[in-house]
C-alpha cells in the first residue's frame, strides 16, 4: 500500500492494534473506532477487564476484535506478540500505545527500584514496541503510530518528576523516530494529555475538574485521521506548557508544582 492509500484508508477498513487496551483513555478511543467499524486487536494484562472491553467493542460495531493477554513489561515477548497481532488483523494501519503507570513519587524518591519500574513500563517497554512497529511500517512505507505521552514530560516538577522523566524520554524518542520515519510514509503522533478523568487520576485532589475522557478520545481520533504530529489535549495545555517551559529556572526551582 502506498503512503496516499494508507492516508485514505477509511475508518471502517482500518486495522488497529491497541497496547494497554484497558486504559481509560484507550477504551474511550476504541469505543469511537468500534462505532466506525474498525478492526481491533487489543492487548492488556488483566484478562477479565480485557474480555469485558472486547465484548463491549463488538457490540458497538467493531468489524473484528481479537485480544491477547500480556504484561507489556516483558519486552522479550514483544516481537512474537506484535507479529501475532499483525497476523490476526491480516495487516496493520494504526498502532496505539496507551499503557503506563503513574507510580508512587514519594517511594521513587527513596528507592531506585520503584523509579526503575516506572521508567521501564513508561519508557523502556514503549521503546521496545516502537522499534519493532516502526521497522514494520517502514518496510510497508505506510502506517500510523499514536502514543500516549504526557504534558508531565514537558518539564520536571517535584510532585512527579520520575513519571515526568519517563514521559520526557518517550516524547524525545517519538520526536526522533518521527524525524526518521516520516519520509518513509509513516506518521508518528505524540499525544500529550493534561489531567484526564481515568482510574490513574481518580485519587488525585481536584480530579472531578479533570478533562472528560470521551472528549479527550474524540480529539485523539481526529488527530489520527488528520495525521497530526503532536497533540496537546485538551488544547489549552499547549499554551499552559509553553509558559511553564519558559519560567526561568531561578524562579521555577522555588515553586511548589
Ligand atoms: N489520565 C491522565 O490524566 C493522563 C494524563 C497524561 C497522560 N496519561 C497517559 O495516558 C495513558 C493511559 O492512562 P489512563 O489515564 O487511561 O490510565 P489508566 O486507566 O490507569 O490506564 C493505564 C493502563 O496501563 C496498563 N498497564 C500498566 N502497566 C502495564 C503493563 N506492564 N502491561 C500491560 N498494561 C499495563 C493498565 O493495566 P491494568 O488495568 O491491568 O493496571 C491500564 O490499563 C498512560 O500512558 C498515562 O501515562 C494519562
TrEMBL record:
One of its GO terms (cellular component) is membrane. Pfam families: adh_short. Signal peptide: none annotated. It comes from the Bacteria. InterPro entries: NAD(P)-bd_dom_sf, Sc_DH/Rdtase_CS, SDR_fam. Keywords: Oxidoreductase. The keyword Glycosyltransferase does not apply. This is Short-subunit dehydrogenase. Belongs to the short-chain dehydrogenases/reductases (SDR) family. PROSITE patterns: ADH_SHORT. GO terms for molecular function: oxidoreductase activity.
